[in-house]
Amino acid sequence: MSLTHEPMPIAVLASGRGSNLKALIAARDAGTLPVRFALVASDRATAPALRLAESHGIPTLALNPKSYADRRAFDLDLFRRLADSGAKALVLAGFMRIIDGQALAPWHGRMLNVHPSLLPKYRGLRTHQRALDAGDREHGASVHFVTAELDGGPVIAQARIAVHEGDSADDLAARLLPREHRLLPAVTALLASGRLGLNEAGVTLDGVPLAAPLQLDNGGELIAA
Ligand code: GRF
Fold first, then answer.
1. What is the number of domains present in the chain?
2. Which is it for strands 60-62 and 89-92: parallel, antiparallel or unpaired?
């Protein structure tokens, strides 16, 4: 029996600038993320994330939602193509769309999303401003398994930052993003190593149910809460 594992083929979906994709590629290059990038896909042909992927020799795909009869038709075509790429897991890194449940179903337990809030707080958009408006003293980011519920799937791990007096939404975004860039590759590495699972009870790590989301420590390691 061989003890060496092939890197897991993954696909990344991104609608925008792609800084989280960049962090995933850097982690792969550093040897801390055992994946091969089978595809980077986007709903926006002009997304900088696609140019980034191309510059790293990663195959790309851009599909225009407006060319499809409806959202489900777009999602089913996109997710069929993701499967055809050979990807065994999917990572949403700033993919700004709600995804059809039927398209998602085959990827249950194999699809991650990074969201800039301490879920279950602040699903959806404008999370930094909403945390400020609520007077929160702490803010953060979450990586969760994707389900048909927007930003509602089981949370795997979180990174926390303090909210300072006088912070703007931009200040919070700027302080949180580098933490996202540690969080997402760390959780993706757990998935790629076969250590994460999802069952009726929730997330498992090495077969043991997680009582609470893992936390990213200051050294960039995931630790039990
Ligand atoms: C990140 O803040 C992520 O949490 C959210 O969208 C943003 C994507 O940024 N889902 P980038 O495109 O990875 O730079």
1. 1
2. unpaired
Domain enclosing residue 174, as ranges: 8-223
- The CATH number of the domain holding residue 145 is 3.40.50.170
Q: Is residue 202 helix, strand or coil?
A: strand
Task: Please state, in angstroms and rounded to a whole number, the distance separating the CA atoms of residues 52 and 74.
Answer: 24
Phi, psi of 51 (to 5 degrees): -65, -40
In a domain, 76, yes or no: yes
CB 160 within 8 A of CB 139: yes
Report d(CA 60, CA 1) in Å as an integer. 35
pLDDT category of residue 1 using cuts at 50, 70 and 90: very low
Q: What is the pTM of this model?
A: 0.96
Out of 25, 114, 128, 144, mutate this one to test ligand 1's pocket (max ligand atoms within 8 Å of CB): namely: 114
Residue located via tokens 């939602």: 65
Q: Would you say residue 208 lies in a domain?
A: yes
Residue 188 falls within a domain, yes or no? yes
Over the Cα atoms of the chain, what is R_g?
17
pLDDT tens per residue, range 122-177: 999 999 999 999 999 999 999 999 999 999 999 999 999 999 999 999 999 999 99
Widest CA span in the chain: 58
Report helix, strand or coil for 208. strand
154 located within any domain? yes
Task: Give the nearest ligand 1 atom to 116 CA.
Answer: 4
Is 108 noted as a catalytic residue in this protein?
Answer: no
**Tell me, what's the pLDDT at 201?**
87
Index of the ligand 1 atom closest to the CA of residue 93: 13
